[in-house]
Amino acid sequence: MPAFLVGAVVGILFFLGYRYYSLYLARKVYALDPAFVTPSHEFNDGVDFVPTNKHVLFGHHFTSVAGAAPIVGPAIAVFWGWGPALAWIVIGTIFAAGVHDLGAMAVSVRHKARSIGTLAGDVINGRARVLFLAIIFFLLTLVNAVFAVVIGNLFVAQPGAVIPIVVEIPLAIGIGMYIYRTRSSALLPSIVGVVVLYALILVGNAVPVSLDGVAEALGFDQTRNLWVILLFVYTWIASRIPVWVLLQPRDYINSHQLFIALGVIALGVIIGMNQIQAPLINDVPEDAPNFFPFLFITIACGAISGFHSLVSSGTSSKQLDKETDARYVGYMGAVGEGSLATGSVLATTAGVAATQADWEALYPDFATASGGAIGNFVNGVAEFANNLGVPLDIAAVFAAVVVISFAATTMDTGVRLQRYVVQEIGELTGIRVLARNLTLATTIAVVIPLVMALLPGGGEAGYTFGVLWQLFGTTNQLTAGLALAVVAVWVTRRGRNPLAVLVPLVFLLVMTTWALILNLRNFIEAEQWVLAPLDAVIFVLALWLMAEAALALRSAFADRRGVSGADDGTGRTDESAVARANPERGESTSGPTEGPTGGTRR
Fold it and tell me: Is residue 387 one of the residues assigned to a domain?
């Protein structure tokens, strides 16, 4: 099967999804209003609440949600065959991820840019808020731990990527300061930043930076662990800096990298006429994980991901200039993620292997597929770039820089969001020092995933991809399902049709609870006494929150039937009628408002 033909079909489907389905969601389901005063204007503080051009915000949002997950997940999932992997990416992106990302952003904007955890309390009840915050805390811990290991492994495997990635930080800060002080457009400075970044790839390839000697002198058994520690030190600092200084300009630089990477993949496939060497449906070994449900949690980002709801409601909603921008930022961000996931499938099925025998040698079993996922993607993209005349060694560094850039941005956002959650938990529990001491909250947000990332074990695939990725994927998809539950209740209470939200909601909750049960059994059999109790706790919290959401949804349908004139028959909702029937459940219009941490602004 020609790889370019597969990519073209997927691209057309994504275009149709954005052109028509996202428009339906924006107008009929979420009723986005260009005149609504967004929280970025209402609470503009120059730190977290900053009105931002939609193209700049798209760059931040996309690179924050992308990370390494839409690359790693599909690169593992092709183990079951490229057909199932691509089918889930396409269907999940159009009918689940877009609904989820756009919905979480729309609801958050209507509730003073509150986080999805706080929204669970606003929309469902106070218990739901506590339960959701606990699940989010676990998810962010796993996200930050997994991505730190991904970056550490790539720095070890591709030392030529160190200089470009390190220099990108002061480069982005300089661009951010220039844009902020001159109030000029970010487009030209960010393009200059990309040019400088890629020029540094040549420098990095000529002068690779290895910390092997330093790690050995300090007593580390793996150089990767030293990189992991340095990464968390960096994110501790980066998460304290205002978003316009580093996060936004680097995200905009990295958003250009999306189009460059996708362009390299597309042109490389066309010029090289690469053929997909993997089977459409793979005959996997008997001891491999079940296709159902594990495909749908292995590919999270790239199809639908709960982490996106944290970004949509945690940082992006605080920067949205106009409510209608949510369609472009939220839904298009999901499409961008699905496009990157498609590129990962093509790189690991058509780029990395010249024959089916070569591919089968890379994917003989699930452990090998998991452990080699990142390397397979990097080598596949390098082959596509080589079709364009780029030397293989430089092309491999380029691919590594793309992955690390996305993963590092997600870590920056993830640690910042984890700090918000820690402070919100402190607010709820009355621990004032936890709620108000940024240093303590940030330290907690860093230390816990750092410890998780440094845990050894996991067999041939390593602890992160042999063990941790499975729980990360399950928790991620569970969070997406629970976020959709919040959105479904909100939509229903406003007299709109919630079917577009309910279908992916039910599917995800079935898949994730099924996977949690299977994982619990596997963790106990493997004597994984860190993850088995964690899996059990998440499972109990999930069942409890699902019950609360089901009761709230039933109540919302009952309230909806009791409101006459909530829908005038044209699809437009009489918001005032709904608000009159449910005064305690409408958007907040007065009183205290939530600040960056989820607490009350004083």
Answer: yes
CA–chain centroid gap for 36, Å, is 27
Structure tokens at 589: 């219009």
Q: Is 460 left (phi over 0), alpha (psi -120 to 50) or beta?
A: alpha
**How many residues make up the chain in this entry?**
602
Q: Secondary structure of 102-119 in the HEC alphabet? A: HHHHHHHHHCCCCCHHHH
Q: Which residues contact 140 (CB under 8 A, 6 or more apart)?
A: 307, 310, 414, 417, 418, 421, 445, 449
Question: Does 596 map to a domain?
Answer: no
The CATH number given to whatever domain includes residue 484 is 1.20.1740.10
pLDDT > 70? residue 596: no
Q: What is the pLDDT of residue 199?
A: 96
Would you say residue 563 has pLDDT above 80?
no
- Rounded CA-CA distance 312/310 in Å is 6
Question: Does 559 map to a domain?
Answer: yes
462 φψ region: left (φ > 0), alpha (ψ -120 to 50), beta (else): left
Two structure tokens written together for 128 = 């739901």
pLDDT for residue 456: 76
Angstrom distance (rounded) from CA 112 to CA 119 = 10
Q: Rounded CA gap, 457 and 447, in Å?
A: 20
Question: Sorting pLDDT into bands at 50, 70 and 90, what band is 249?
Answer: confident
Residue 272: which domain range? 3-581
The model's confidence at residue 466, banded by pLDDT at 50, 70 and 90, is low
How many folded domains does the chain comprise?
Answer: 1
Cα–Cα distance, 488 to 257 (Å, whole number): 34
Residue 595 belongs to a domain: no
Q: Look at residue 464 in the predicted model and tell me its pLDDT.
A: 65
- Per the CB < 8 A criterion, the answer to whether 332 and 44 are in contact is no
Q: What is the mean pLDDT of residues 336-362?
A: 94
pLDDT in tens, 2-16: 999 999 999 999 999
Say if residue 228's pLDDT is above 50. Answer: yes
Residue 315 near residue 341, CB atoms below 8 Å: no
Residues 337, 301 contacting (CB under 8 angstroms) = yes
Q: Which one-letter DSSP state was computed for residue 289?
A: P
Question: What's the rounded mean pLDDT across residues 492-504?
Answer: 94
**What mean pLDDT, rounded, does the chain reach?**
87
> Residues 338-372, buried b or exposed e (16+ Cβ, 10 A)?
bbbbbbbbbbbbbbbbeeeeebeebbeebbebbbb
Rounded CA-CA distance 160/155 in Å is 8
Residue 457 binned pLDDT confidence (cut-offs 50, 70, 90): low
Output the six-digit token pair for 65. Answer: 């949600």
